[in-house]
Design goal:
single chain; three-stranded parallel sheet; 4 helices; 12% strand
């Protein structure tokens, strides 16, 4: 309510970082607390396209599909890029994710 542009799950440098449960709670707060167009950033532990999809679905449910933009939704997951590239290249997401 003090004017944050984004609400972030964690630094991503902890043993337990983003979780779907924490994300759902934070997204409900963004949606219901009058934070306007504040965005959400899920950080840490997101290593696969399957993981990312879960956060996309949570954000769409809480904030609406129009919030699925870089201005409102971001991932802090350095391990995710390799899996995205693998999926785009037609490789199995689970096999690539297991390598990270």
């Amino acid at each position: 309510m003090a004017g944050a542009d984004f609400v972030k799950t964690s630094t991503g440098k902890t043993k337990v970082s983003a979780t779907p449960e924490a994300a759902a709670t934070m997204l409900r707060e963004i949606a219901g607390s009058g934070l306007g167009n504040a965005g959400f950033k899920a950080s840490g532990g997101i290593r696969s396209v399957v993981d990312a999809r879960a956060y996309l679905q949570l954000a769409a449910e809480a904030l609406g599909a129009t919030a699925l933009t870089p201005q409102r939704l971001r991932f802090g997951a350095s391990g995710l890029l390799g899996d995205i590239e693998a999926v785009l290249a037609g490789q199995d997401s689970a096999a690539v994710s297991a390598a990270y």
